[in-house]
């Protein structure tokens, strides 16, 4: 099942999951709140995020606020970055302690495949949100498929973002060679928005929540449409091997943007990653925050399309859960 039916089923299931948390994970964690108010880890936690206007940055700010509210002795610093690839590199360089990343990027890093030259030691705190891949063109442009971008200019986002890697792959499976068939630019979101308004790019790709502020602004002026992407999913998965299992068919809901009907696209799971040497009490604390404060960790613009699914938090695929997270999940289930 794909398209709108699949997306509706997923949203229904996620709403049900949050309801189930009240009698499942969260039922056992209310008492944990009392136990932990006067204890918990202490020190500094650096959370790498993404572009300032993006979904990762909004999530990182919320996560930092909820961690500090729950564990006052744990000080959080939010570190901006270019996105998933950059976040993995920051973890590897020990310039960040925890960071979100698209699942295909996380699994590539863990396995040492492109765009990483060698294996990156990683652990996960949990599988968190879905990123919606959104490829926008001007509403009046005669562009209706990815293949129509031949001879055009497209921004795939910051060079070290997961969206840029995925965008490159999308162009290729659509039969286009970046750099020859399509002129590719790597612009940050504010730059891409200005370029779209000026007409110096024909399309921009972003991956994040729905709606994304940068696209909402463009929808007001000059007006945008989203190109359907889910038809490329089988070929995209085939080229990614096991990492392709983190991709699924989803739909951007009708009305998410002023002039946009429901559009079938591609969803990519996000993992909240950490270094393997993150202290177990800190990993456990993060896990408790993800579970117990789930409803406070959804950026406001994405309410209604994003949920923390308690049933899938532990489904991190090739990247193993941190032992501290494993202990916390067991405690919460206990």
From TrEMBL:
SUPFAM superfamilies per record: Periplasmic binding protein-like II
Task: Return the Pfam families for the record.
Answer: NMT1_3
Signal peptide start and end residues: 1-32
> Would the keyword Signal be found if you checked this record's keyword annotation?
yes
Q: Which UniProt keywords apply?
A: Signal
Q: Which PANTHER family match?
A: SLL1037 PROTEIN (PTHR42941)
**Designated name of the protein:** TAXI family TRAP transporter solute-binding subunit
């Amino acid at each position: 099942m794909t398209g709108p039916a699949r997306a509706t089923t997923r949203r229904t299931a996620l709403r049900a999951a949050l309801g189930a948390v009240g009698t499942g994970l969260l039922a056992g964690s209310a008492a944990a709140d009392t136990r932990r108010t006067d204890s918990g880890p202490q020190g500094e936690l650096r959370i790498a995020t993404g572009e300032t206007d993006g979904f990762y940055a909004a999530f990182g700010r919320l996560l930092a606020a909820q961690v500090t509210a729950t564990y006052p002795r744990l000080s959080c610093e939010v570190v901006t970055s270019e996105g998933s690839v950059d976040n993995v590199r920051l973890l590897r360089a020990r310039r960040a302690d925890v960071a979100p990343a698209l699942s295909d990027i996380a699994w590539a890093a863990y396995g040492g495949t492109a765009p990483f030259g060698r294996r990156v030691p990683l652990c996960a705190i949990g599988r968190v949100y879905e990123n919606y891949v959104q490829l926008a063109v001007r509403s009046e442009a005669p562009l209706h498929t990815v293949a129509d971008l031949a001879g055009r200019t497209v921004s795939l986002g910051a060079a070290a973002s997961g969206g840029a890697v995925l965008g490159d792959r999308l162009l290729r499976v659509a039969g286009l060679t970046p750099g020859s068939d399509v002129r590719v630019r790597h612009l940050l979101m504010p730059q891409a928005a200005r370029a779209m308004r000026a007409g110096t790019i024909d399309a921009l790709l972003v991956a994040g929540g729905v709606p994304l502020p940068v696209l909402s602004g463009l929808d007001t002026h000059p007006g945008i449409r989203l190109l359907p992407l889910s038809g490329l999913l089988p070929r995209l998965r085939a080229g990614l091997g096991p990492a392709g299992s983190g991709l699924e068919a989803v739909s951007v809901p009708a009305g998410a943007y002023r002039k946009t009907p429901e559009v079938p696209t591609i969803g990519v799971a996000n993992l909240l990653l950490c270094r393997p040497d993150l202290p177990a009490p800190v990993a456990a604390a993060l896990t408790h925050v993800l579970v117990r404060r789930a409803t406070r960790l959804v950026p406001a613009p994405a309410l209604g399309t994003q949920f923390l699914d308690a049933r899938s938090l532990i489904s991190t695929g090739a990247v193993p859960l941190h032992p501290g997270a494993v202990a916390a999940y067991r405690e919460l289930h206990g």
